[in-house]
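Quick one before lunch.
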Amino acid sequence: MDHPTQFDVIVIGGGHAGTEAALAAARMGCATLLLTHSVDTLGQMSCNPAIGGIGKSHLVREIDALGGAMAKATDQAGIQFRVLNSRKGPAVRATRAQADRVLYRNAIRTIIEAQEGLQVFQQAVDDLIIENGSVQGVVTQTGLRFKAPRVILTTGTFLGGQMHIGLSKSAGGRAGDPPSNTLAARLRELPLRVERLKTGTPPRLDARSIDLESLEKQWGDEPRPVMSFLGDRSQHPDQRCCWVAYTNQHTHDIIRDGLDRSPLYTGVIEGEGPRYCPSIEDKIQRFADKNSHQVFVEPEGLSTNELYPNGISTSLPFDVQMELVRSISGFENAHITRPGYAIEYDFFDPRDLLSSLETRTISGLYFAGQINGTTGYEEAAAQGLLAGINAALAIREEDPWCPRRDEAYLGVLVDDLITLGTKEPYRMFTSRAEHRLLLREDNADLRLTEQGRKLGLVDDERWSQFSEKRDLIDAEQSRLLRSFVHPGSPSAETLSSKLDKPLSREYSYAELLKRPELEYADIAALDSQGIHHEQASLQVSIQAKYAGYIDRQQGEIDRVRRYEGLSLPSDMDYTQVLGLSHEVRDKLVAQKPETLGRASRIPGVTPAAISLLLVHMKRRQ
Ligand code: FAD
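Model of the flavin-adenine dinucleotide complex:
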């Protein structure tokens, strides 16, 4: 049988963006090829073995709600699960899992290999076939040609990758992997803006050389959270403890003394690093008044002694790394198994992309993941999923899809990137979403699974579990509105110990649930008719308790939406818009926003300019 060379969609790169992109396109019925350096590194975590966290778990749940792989793989690989911000409001609560690196990779590979319509081929891509401004396929390192009208590029940190340890540098996509230099050179010939960014990773330690007994212990939460909406605790492997250590003044002195051999501080590295995940040398410079920084000591997996000291990412020379590690209490005899390093790589200005993640200048070519200036597995996977969806929609000759900012963090991520661009590795935070009370991690399925089903991403099993949950929530909410507690009744007696004062009138269960002193379990205990579905009862509770805020936020969204989605034609002549300043006009011409909402978020485009545009568009109609 001939090796097939013609596909609907080709995905380059088998990292977090690439695997979700390939799975999404194949789930939507496209003949899909995933080309990657090594089949063994599908779903490889380049840096810390953890998924989720604030803002990031929101993305993971959205990927899951749309049928993606990341949350499922996390449930099969997670060796410690916690809910961060558990005492704060539901908008900022976030699930985080420490993952076994090998189990995670295996879980992703198993999902990929089980996906119908998806083929994997191990080979580096060196060139794109572009004809008349549209992509037609790719050429691999050995000269093999694969054709497809849609190509998704997800090459992560590999394009022109340059690794630094002290003043010594070497070419690489990440430690142990080659860079993609031929492809990087080819891409630099295309009409796309390209710049450099950098990121870094800490040295890894041998657990047998660390005095773990002397460190602060940190266990996972009980009851143990799950990552996927379909997740089940019984899938989780054995759970592990993490620890917390601290840098001290001596550590900081060692780092300061080594800065003259730091690639960051001697100007060898030019790319901007991640502001929210800085190296330890950055931290001691930026927070010079702090005597100590936390180091989270996390196991890399169940079958290894390696530990990941989260918080001391560094590119200082190895001898300085050794000294700084050993200055930390509990690490006095530490053996480093792998040195920390920084990596610089090419990324493309995401303002050159449409909201479908297709490039504006080369039809059929999509970019997703770290190549767009983001950092993090979750941000990459979310973009990959979206690019896969849109490549498949294009094959079906249907309109592209991207959720709005008030529908999903995925919408916030893409809108931020394509409207504002980025000068430093972009990571997601709940603070980036103006409607975060609506975009909770707990309701991602209620926001997105129906859309996922329409797109063809959600299989029957997920759909039936989701439908059952949604129906339970609806039924329980109506029951709570119809059920009452009367003053002096046995139910009122039962509640009295929890309430500040006795009930003065008849209250519906729904009204009672709004009270901060009462939980859903208290209401459910009043009769035997409450629901026992963990996720559904959580929804009933959150939706009741935050109803006022949620309604207010929805009202704001409805007001803004009136103009947010108004399309601005790509050939719009901004010189015809009366009253626009030169500066605003230049920005609009340069960025060609697709909608009025996007125009409003371009820095420097004032509300007054938006009104002028609105008037102009109304006149045109
Ligand atoms: P990657 O996961 O990098 O995957 C790219 C894939 O493309 C790989 O499989 C590669 O083999 C393949 N590939 C590349 N070129 C080609 C080609 N020409 N042909 C075929 N296949 C190709 N994130 C954080 O959130 N916090 C951190 O502290 C952090 N530190 C990091 C430190 C280091 C040293 C590195 C390397 C990354 C770090 N990251 C960090 C980033 C995180 O690893 C990435 O955000 C994430 O992996 C990006 O996913 P991706 O799918 O875009 O790319």
